[in-house]
Design brief:
Chain B: Belongs to the binding-protein-dependent transport system permease family. The structure holds 2 protein chains of 2 kinds. By secondary structure, chain A is mostly helical. Chain A is built from 11 helices and no strands. Chain A has helices at residues 5-10, 12-46, 48-63, 66-72, 74-77, 81-105, 109-117, 122-152, 165-174, 177-205, 207-213. In chain A, α2 (12-46) crosses α6 (81-105) and α6 (81-105) crosses α8 (122-152). Chain A is elongated, with a radius of gyration of 20 Å. Chain B is 78% helix and 0% strand. Chain B contains 10 helices and no strands. Classes of the chains: A mainly alpha, B mainly alpha. Chain A binds chain B through residues 1, 59-60, 62-69, 71-72, 74-75, 94-95, 98, 143-144, 147-148, 150-152, 154-155, 157-158, 164-165, 167-169, 171-172, 175-177, 180-181, 183-184, 187-188, 191-192, 195, and chain B through 4, 68-69, 71-78, 80-81, 83-85, 156, 159-161, 163-164, 174, 177-178, 180-181, 186, 189-190, 192-193, 196-197, 200-201, 204, 223, 225.
Chain lengths: 214, 226
Amino acid sequence: MTIDWTWISEHGSDLTSLTLSHLQAALTAVLLGLLISLPLAVLAHRVRPLRGFLLGLSNVLFTIPSIAVFVLLLPVSGLTRTTTVIGLTIYTLVVLLRNTVEGLDSVPQKTKEAAKAMGTRPMRTLFTVEFPLALPVIMAGVRIATVMSISLVSVATYIGDGGLGQLFTDGFQRNFPTPVIVGVVLTLLLALVADAILVAVQRLLTPWTRTRKG
Amino acid sequence: MYELFKNLGSWLVSGEQWTGSDGIGHRLAEHLQYSLIATLVAAAIALPVGLLIGHTGRGAFVAINLSSFGRALPTVGLVVLVFLASGLSMWPVYIALVALAVPSIVTNTYAGMTAVDPEVRDAARGQGMRAHQVLFQVELPLALPLIMTGLRLALIQVVATATIAAYVSFGGLGRYVFDGLAQRDLVQVLGGAVLVAVVAVVLDLALSGLQRLLFRHRPAATPKSA
């Protein structure tokens, strides 16, 4: 299995646009996933009976094969980018929801009571005390969700989208390994770079965790 | 929407759908075969690695990076790549599924081993237990809940992904998904997806039941997608 280097240099601009479209799908999904899962996680954290239901539901969604999720969305949103993004968002929910709930659970009861005793209102406590303290666990979820989404975008190839995944079908149909290898390598690179950036963002957002360890 | 679910219902319960070589019974058996073999092979590779890393405390870097690498690896690309290299065989499917399952098992096994209280380990050594005795009689039993969690997670992922076998013209429940996709037959796709989800959930419940039965005195660990 040899790599055809001239194919790569000839398709530079295609590869760039596929990579950007790939990244765009994954990042939109993670952002939407966060928008949905943060309020749900607060709800699951505060209203105990809802907790098992919400976490169980997200686990069941996770077991449905991604290809099926994309196809099942076809009657709703057709052969479009929207289908890809909704499908990926569903997958991010299980990780984001569970990690955010776990993060909120990990905030010590005493800290919350102290905030209450100082007269901080519940909403303000949530944003200035609970979320910041839960951030390391939430960010761990965001990292997993991002890497997972980047790897899953390729599956949307079967519904005509899929960013770098199109290289897989291209190589499969023409029995030509180069695009497949390039697609796998670019997907891995994209995931690793995105993960490294998120680690840096987390360090910037939680300066106190650095001094404590040092 | 109602019509769709009604058709799905009749698709799932109709008698002829369950028999024959392209019936649900046969596809289900194929799907289970792919999933169980892949998970067992992955466990045979990943458990010793995870135990070794946890026991010696060396190679934690490997365990952590392996998990993010495994998550980032696009399964479709891997299947196609191995397919182009090996031709029409079960290799692409099994290699991709094992590659998918190994990281979850290694990282959870490692996590379970590091969660063992160091004082317990020291006490075992102080009583004169040898390294392998400490590993098998102390560390392993204490790490078991998390190890089981890793196995359950791996199995769910493998069952959901075994769908892809049909892409390189093999069987399993993915057949319905890909055939339905090609024939624009939404009921068939939906049926395949529902069956895969049911299999994943049932296997997960069975494993968690087994876990509770075997280790009744230990607290159950919550699944971690590490």
